[in-house]
Amino acid sequence: MQIRVVKRRYFVNKHVEMVQIALLAMQRHSWEQGVAMQAFYELGKMDIVVAMAKEAVYRSLPDGRVATIGVTDAITDSCSVGEALIAAAQETKDKDLLEGAEKLLNWALYQAPKNQEGVLYHLLDRSEFWVDSMYMLPPYLAAAGYYEEALINIKGYFNALYDEKTHTMHHMWDDHKKEYVREAHWGVGNGWALAGLARVIDLLPETYEQDKKDLIAKAKELLDGVLSYKRKDGLFHDIIDDESTFVETNLSQMVAYTIYRGVYSNWLSKEYVTQAENLRTAVLDKVDKFGLVQGVCGAPTFDKAGVAPEGQAFFLLMEAAAARYK
């Protein structure tokens, strides 16, 4: 398990400083700790990443799942911590972090419930795939060097949940019953899918050229589908094709993150940057005086506009990606 620790300069502006302080003040479940750690990792703030990794490992279950508070039936959520945890362990050579990283990998590869094709389920007691898992698991497996397993999972989720008619993602699929548990085109779920695809594309080595091309084609098709539902104000509805649902902020920053990352890595055309700038402008207007990104799909129930750790984290990811591009 090897990952190149990325040394980046700190991206500092007023919004970033305020948003990161507000994020660190929030209580966090495993996936929220994971996306927050990834945000600080991509900002280059390894001191914070290491501190958060220590806490994530401290909150481990015996089976190896890290950062577990409250929600104990999630299979892939803990894996969102993975890339940043590996980086922290390798930078510090800390015994607890190294052991925690190995146990989490053992969980993901050998213990976690999965279907016959090797695609991990989202919850312990159900044979369900959730679009959320496209971000939580495959980038971690790719970062750990398990490229085949990363591809099996990200393609498995995509094939089960992608809607050919709308070119967007459904939310939940029961792989045993072969039916949707939640057919809705959830905005943040589409954001998880885009960000997960972007990270896996960047993490695959050049020897996986054809697989990279396949994922790039999927990412572009999904990106275009999602962008077709963008409102004039640069935001989206919570269910992107249902205008009766609330207007939501987080998908805009998730899409902007994907675009900036894709253009910087040369698998997206620079023509998309205009879209990213429009989305980013809309998001910047949503940061309040306390550094809270308002109007995201709100924790803890995610059924109304509010604030959430993942909304804070994706603001930071968006800003880090924008700064690298510029």
Describe the structure.
This protein has helices at residues 14-25, 30-43, 46-58, 82-92, 95-111, 133-136, 138-143, 147-161, 187-203, 209-227, 250-264, 273-284, 309-325, and strands spanning 128-130, 162-163, 168-169, 172-174, 179-182, 236-237, 247-248, 296-297, 305-306. The protein is mainly alpha-helical and 326 residues long. A hairpin with a 7-residue loop joins β8 (296-297) and β9. α3 (46-58) packs across α5 (95-111). The radius of gyration is 18 Å and the shape is globular. The two termini are 32 Å apart.
Layout of SSEs?
Blueprint: H1 14-25, H2 30-43, H3 46-58, H4 82-92, H5 95-111, E1 128-130, H6 133-136, H7 138-143, H8 147-161, E2 162-163, E3 168-169, E4 172-174, E5 179-182, H9 187-203, H10 209-227, E6 236-237, E7 247-248, H11 250-264, H12 273-284, E8 296-297, E9 305-306, H13 309-325
Antiparallel strand pairs: 1-4, 2-3, 4-5, 6-7, 8-9
Helix pairs in contact: 1-13, 2-3, 2-4, 2-13, 3-4, 3-5, 4-5, 8-9, 9-10, 9-11, 11-12, 11-13
